[in-house]
Design brief:
The chain is of the alpha+beta class. It folds into 2 domains: about 120 residues, Roll (Diaminopimelate Epimerase, Chain A, domain 1); about 100 residues, Diaminopimelate Epimerase, Chain A, domain 1 (Roll), CATH 3.10.310. About 20% of the residues lie in helices and about 40% in strands. It contains 5 helices and 17 strands. It has a 17-stranded mixed β-sheet that branches. The chain is globular.
Length: about 270
């Protein structure tokens, strides 16, 4: 299936009915926007302890423990399939809970943020609220590492160079997602994102959660914020039980990979 959340696009493979092995080479081949299908992330649905287990791959073939917008898209698909309004999903990140938020919107609880340096992880002990990097960004873990820069105008940052450089910063041994964010009003942020293993994307769910947490920790906003991304708007609410993210989803198409394509990709 092809899906997207605010233009953050995914290929979703349903492996509940039969075992499907996704190798890094196959993920890269499917992710090729000229010779494959193209995606920001690939997600595999397996049977799990809850309603389903999700595994995520980036377009460079690497894996990610979390992908918020893909989780919302899949949750909407599974809720519609099963006639449910709430789900329990498992991921490498842990147990995630989703619900129908009404008006075609889907909410996912992305879990508690990781704020300690060793949990994000960072290379050594330091203050995660102000990293020793130009711009004093905030580090946050949401099952994957994030580095958030608060700037005057997110739209003017040369993100392609800026994001690529900071993704591989020595402070992040597992690389990092990079966000630039600006405060545009009370509890209202404008954000752009560079995703680890992908590049610039129109939106990112886990990045939006990380930015909301970072802004609240900095005292720039409250815990419930509106975040405007290049692809649209998400609402994020950092509650006692975790970081809830709400927004629209789209199921674009269903398809079948040919045996010829799969064989060539191995």
């Amino acid at each position: 299936m092809k899906m997207h959340g605010l233009g953050n696009d995914f290929v979703v493979v349903d492996a509940r009915a039969r075992a499907i092995t996704v190798t890094p080479a196959l993920a890269i081949a499917i992710g090729d926007r000229h010779r494959g299908i193209g995606f920001d992330q690939l997600a595999v649905i397996d049977a799990g302890a809850g309603d389903a287990h999700l595994t995520f791959y980036n377009s460079d073939g690497s894996t990610s423990a979390a992908c918020g917008n893909a989780t919302r898209c899949i949750a909407r698909y599974l809720m519609d399939e099963g006639g449910k309004d709430a789900l329990h999903l498992t991921t490498e990140r842990g147990d995630l809970y989703a619900r129908d938020a009404g008006d075609g919107l889907t909410s996912v609880n992305m879990g508690a943020p990781q704020l300690a340096w060793q949990d994000i992880p960072l290379a050594s002990e330091m203050d995660t609220l102000a990293l020793p990097i130009d711009g004093a960004p905030v580090a946050t873990g949401m099952g994957n590492p994030h580095c958030t820069f608060f700037v005057e105008d997110a739209g003017t940052v040369p993100l392609e160079e800026f994001g690529a450089r900071h993704e591989h910063h020595a402070l992040f041994p597992q690389r990092t997602n990079v966000q630039v964010a600006s405060l545009v009003g009370p509890d209202h942020l404008r954000m752009r994102v560079w995703e680890r293993g992908v590049g610039i994307t129109l939106a990112s769910g886990s990045s939006s959660c990380a930015v909301a947490v970072a802004a609240a920790r900095r005292g720039l906003t409250g815990r419930a914020v509106r975040i405007d991304l290049d692809g649209g708007t998400l609402m994020v609410d950092w509650r006692d039980d975790g970081v809830w993210m709400t927004g629209p989803t789209m199921h674009v198409a269903d398809g079948t990979l040919t045996a010829q394509f799969i064989e060539a990709a191995q």
